[in-house]
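Deliverable D5.2: sample structural annotation.
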Amino acid sequence: MGREDESIEQAVASRRERLLALRAAQELSGAPEPEPQPESEPEPEPNDNEDQDQQESLSMKFRNYVPHDKHLQEGKLAPAVLPKFEDPVAAAPPPEAEAKEDPFLNIAPKKPNWDLRRDVQKKLDKIEKRTQKALYELMEEQEKQKLLAEGDDTNGTED
């Protein structure tokens, strides 16, 4: 309990110091210090002259409401006028140089099987290499057979 009382007392003391510093700063800046009014003092009741002055100083303006009281109808404002909207896109004529194309043609892919080709491209590349290698081997065999056939022909004629 003693520690809590000490911490509360410290908080009160620090708050008092801050308030004193704020008051001193207000006095130095020349700003009037607001005086706290005790709750026990009743506020003075306004006179009838003060009520009339306040009503005259308060001018109510109605933009979207039509008051029933004739005194308040004087404060009715005219509704706000919106400027005419001009669409800059519609105002500009379309360029005639552009060829009119169907916009849906650009959406669809050029080739309908592009996704299939993409998926099997690696396999196609492997097969293409094997095909080229096989064609090369076949060409070499044909060359050897031609050379052998020519060699047999040349050997047979010399005998």
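Annotation notes: Residues 38-42 have pLDDT under 50 and may be disordered. The longest helix spans residues 114-158.
The annotation will be released with the project's public dataset once the embargo ends.
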